[in-house]
What we know:
By secondary structure, this protein is of the alpha+beta class. It has one helix spanning 2-21, and strands at 28-38, 47-52, 71-77, 91-98, 106-113.
Amino acid sequence: MRGALKSSFVLAGLLMLLAGACRPPRGHSYVVRAQVVEMPGAANGQTFVLHHEAVDNFVTHDGKMEGMDSMTMPFLVARTVPLSQIQPGDKIEVILHVDWQADRAVEITGLRKLAPTQTLDFRAARPPRKS
Length: 131
């Protein structure tokens, strides 16, 4: 009986771990194009300053899809994002992950370099209209 009880606890623990691992990711991810203004460095730590295009479907902290206008702003960068081939002035496309419940609520989690001839559209956001 004692062995069966111990096995039940082990099984329950494993099921809880699996349930947590299968949980869908929280927050929203956006693909955003931008131009690099300032690289992370001694002066600004892990902060990457970008002039980014508008994000029309951006969801605010209060859960409203209000969009985010084009602007120059700092972003935290995940340690796994390679920056060695990127320099100020480069045009890039990033994956911007936003999870208002996380310690790092807004963070760049992916990046790819764009062609220097890529045209960027710096405009006001156009959030989808409510029906």
